[in-house]
Specification:
Elements: E1 5-10, H1 18-32, E2 35-42, H2 44-50, H3 65-71, H4 75-85, E3 89-95, H5 98-108, E4 113-119, H6 123-129, H7 132-139, E5 144-149
Parallel strand pairs: 1-2, 1-4, 2-3, 4-5
């Protein structure tokens, strides 16, 4: 199976590990000539929280998720890295429940591989709060590379 499209799913907690996530994606995409889709799904609450910070005037009902994703950290930093490396990339955003939106995004872009980051949580935290990355891995339509960063905490 050829890898033509890689979905790099990121969130705001991924800002601290963006260089490592970009390197992981580049190690796969660059030699294969694959396109990286930088995907950022966010909830309505998250959108409301960053609405003013990003200088957006649109109500949540009128938002263009791709535009918000393109301006939300760590997406610009990742895009710059792929641009410098000469790797084709796209930016996709989604609004709604994060794990299901990321899985839908992978289906929509026909991803051959996904890269998702996770953070260290205790079993009790996972039971109470859930795990977005775990849900993505379980529902993914393609193989997933899980980037675990022990330094990133809730």
């Amino acid at each position: 199976m050829a890898i033509e499209t890689i979905l790099l799913a990121v969130g705001p907690m991924d800002t601290v590990r963006a260089p490592e996530l970009a390197q992981t994606a580049l190690e796969i995409a660059d030699p294969l000539g694959a396109t990286v889709v930088i995907g950022h799904a966010f909830t309505e609450d998250e959108y409301e929280d960053v609405h003013d910070d990003l200088g957006l005037n649109a109500r949540v009902e009128d938002v263009d998720p791709d535009e918000v994703a393109a301006r939300r950290a760590p997406v610009p930093q990742l895009a710059e890295r792929f641009e410098e490396a000469g790797v084709d990339y796209e930016i996709k955003g989604a609004l709604g429940e994060v794990s299901s939106q990321v899985v839908d995004m992978a289906i929509d872009v026909d991803a051959d591989r996904m890269i998702v980051g996770g953070r260290r949580r205790s079993p009790a935290e996972k039971a109470v709060l859930g795990s977005v990355s775990q849900e993505i891995i379980l529902q993914a339509p393609c193989p997933v590379t899980y980037f675990r960063d022990l330094d990133v905490m809730e």
